[in-house]
């Protein structure tokens, strides 16, 4: 059975697909979007985070660590070059100042968690959504999980940035009810600048899925001064319309919910100066998409 590193299995979500859903967060992503709200899911490996405002400097973590990976002083607690992610320090901290990001789970173990809420899916038209990170980095795991869900009558949905081999999409297409597919930036140079990756493969895979008749809801995280320009709105609309069909776009206004996790992981938060979007600002972006002929909504 396939294994993946999972950071969270979150029940009762109403933001990631129709109805009440269980969202499975998988570690590992090929993109490095500077606004990412889930930085704990960027790398594929397990990590230990440090929440410094909870630390009471009791010293228990240093006493239990067998690898000399606990740093003294008021700075970040973990020396990532020495840490083996054994988790002993996490278990020893009385104050929850240390957190383990990621646990290895089989597709069967995740399925067992997901199916516990089947009665809620049945009542609401919900199901399971796999998010990340980028779930398409583990297509075999996804295929196993979604196949079992389908057999149990549980609807399946994947959130993807689209950056994966076409073969990965081909594999999971028969067992996937909905693709939540990000279109972040259409201009290739700007996409590379702000996400670290080219978008040629992303646009090609979107076209592939559309041609195969997949159920796709396009989504766009809207980041002020990065992808809310007239040019990007027009180019995104033109791309969606070029696919034929009647694909909709859901806007996800920028928020700062992930900021504290950057500090916990001791990595820079490059959009520190950005403020969350106001309702008026995201509403104005939506109006522009509507004017372009795109059925456009704003995520809650
Ligand atoms: S065990 Fe927890 S509270 Fe104590 S020093 Fe370590 S991180 Fe801080
Ligand atoms: S996870 Fe293990 S190796 Fe890493 S700092 Fe904690 S106790 Fe040390």
Number of strands: 11
Number of domains: 2
Unreliable spans are none
Q: How big a fraction of the residues is strand?
A: 15-25%
Q: What's the shape?
A: globular
Look at the helices and sheets and give the structural class: alpha/beta
CATH homologous superfamily designation of the largest domain: Aldolase class I
The molecules bound to the chains, other than polymers, are: iron/sulfur cluster
CATH architecture of the largest domain: Alpha-Beta Barrel
Largest sheet: 9 strands, mixed
Give the SSE order as H and E letters. Answer: EEEHHEEHHEHEHEHHEHEHHE
**What value does the average pLDDT take?**
96
The residue fraction in helices comes out at 25-40%
Write a structural description.
- This protein folds into two domains: 3-44 and 106-259 and 271-298, TIM Barrel, CATH 3.20.20; 47-101, Alpha-Beta Plaits (2-Layer Sandwich).
- Helix content is 33%, strand content 20%.
- The protein has helices at residues 60-64, 88-92, 107-114, 118-124, 139-151, 166-172, 188-195, 200-211, 230-242, 259-265, 279-291, and strands at residues 3-13, 21-26, 47-50, 98-101, 103-106, 127-131, 155-160, 178-182, 216-222, 248-253, 296-298.
- The strands form two sheets. Strands 5-1-2-6-7-8-9-10-11 form a nine-stranded mixed beta sheet. Strands 3-4 form a two-stranded antiparallel sheet.
- Strand 1 and strand 2 (21-26) form a beta hairpin.
- The longest helix is centred in the middle third of the chain and has 13 residues, at 139-151.
């Amino acid at each position: 059975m396939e294994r993946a590193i999972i950071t969270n299995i979150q029940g009762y979500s109403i933001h990631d697909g129709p109805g009440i859903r269980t969202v499975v967060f998988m570690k590992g992503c090929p993109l490095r979007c500077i606004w990412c709200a889930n930085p704990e899911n960027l790398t594929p490996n397990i990590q230990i985070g440090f929440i410094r405002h909870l630390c009471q400097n009791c010293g228990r973590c240093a006493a239990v660590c067998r690898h000399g990976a606990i740093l003294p002083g008021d700075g970040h607690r973990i020396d990532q070059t020495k840490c083996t992610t054994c988790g002993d320090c996490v278990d020893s901290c009385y104050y929850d100042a240390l957190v383990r990001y990621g646990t290895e789970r089989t597709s069967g173990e995740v399925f067992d968690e997901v199916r516990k809420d089947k009665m809620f899916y049945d009542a609401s038209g919900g199901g399971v959504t796999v998010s990340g990170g980028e779930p398409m980095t583990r297509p075999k795991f996804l295929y196993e999980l979604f196949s079992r869900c389908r057999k149990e009558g549980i609807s399946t949905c994947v959130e993807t940035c689209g950056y994966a081999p076409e073969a990965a999409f081909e594999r999971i297409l028969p067992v996937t009810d909905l693709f939540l597919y990000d279109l972040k930036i259409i201009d290739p140079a700007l996409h590379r600048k702000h996400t670290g990756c080219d978008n040629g493969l992303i646009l090609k895979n979107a076209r592939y899925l559309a041609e195969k008749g997949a159920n796709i809801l396009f989504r766009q995280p809207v980041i002020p001064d990065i992808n809310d320009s007239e040019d990007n709105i027009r180019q995104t609309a033109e791309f969606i319309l070029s696919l034929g069909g009647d694909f909709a776009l859901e806007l996800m206004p920028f928020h700062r919910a992930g900021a504290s996790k950057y500090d916990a992981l001791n990595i820079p938060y490059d959009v520190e100066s950005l403020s969350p979007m106001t309702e008026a600002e995201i509403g104005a972006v939506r109006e522009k998409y509507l004017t372009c002929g795109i059925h456009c909504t704003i995520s809650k």
